[in-house]
Amino acid sequence: MDSKESKPGDRGNAMLGIGYMLAATLLTAGMNSAARHLTDTVHPFELVFFRNLFAFVAISPMLMRVGLGAFKTERLGAHIGRASLNVVNMMFWFTAISLAPLSEVVALGFTAPIFATILSVLILGEIVGWRRWFAILIGFGGAMVILQPGFEQIQLGQALTLMAAVTWAGCLLIIKSLSRTESSLTIVAYMTVLMTPLSLLPALFFWQWPTMTELAWLAFIGAAGAAAQYCLAQSLHEADISVVMPIDFMKLVWIGLIAYIAFGETPAMTTWIGGIIIFASGAFIARREAVRRKSAGPT
Fold this sequence. Notes:
Elements: H1 11-38, H2 44-66, H3 76-99, H4 102-109, H5 112-124, H6 130-147, H7 156-178, H8 184-204, H9 212-238, H10 241-244, H11 250-263, H12 269-295
Helix pairs in contact: 1-9, 1-11, 2-3, 2-8, 2-9, 3-7, 3-8, 4-7, 4-11, 4-12, 5-6, 5-7, 5-12, 6-12
């Protein structure tokens, strides 16, 4: 039996990576469903604060074990910028969850990789070939299937979801830049430490002390969010993105099932069709990005 260390993409690692991604999608769906339940009584901005607070509590044992070395950086400004943009992203996202059907929010959320590609061209000057531009057009076509402009008025919840996708795309670019010089632990450490106080300020304008039941749900949201991020990171560590990316579509499946059982929401056929189109576009863009990295040339 070969004693060499397995690499990402090996069969064993691929199955483990798929398992981690599947867990991440289920945890994310659970977090978003719990958030939708709480938005009836808890303001979305307050929800963002508690999500970050309990996520910080969840990973604080690891930070204490590592010590101050996790915070060694020469790019504090980039960390602050990422945390600030991420807070704005969460405010858009949780507000959208309170206004729009869950399945629509998740389906439109798949546009984030598409926006990230566009921003990389506008901000970083990245060269994007015709294949990825075509995928971007297809992805936006999927968004139009869901939004149906001209047939239905675009609602505030849908608009906020797209704004959340754009801001998350900006976060992805900052994370991509930080990952060139910073460890994953340093990125996570600054994210959790900075986002809690940054999200407290807007929450104070709508503050109401949560009940014990609400506090338990908020703790679940924070823990599920932290666990989902960990599972996602482990998934990408164990297997290539082209292997685990298709599993991300399970978020829409889980949300559709939970929304039907818990809230009586039945996803429209246009949501499924548009979600599949958007997801396929994003998956293709991710695949071409992987090819570009290997070839170090335009795609």
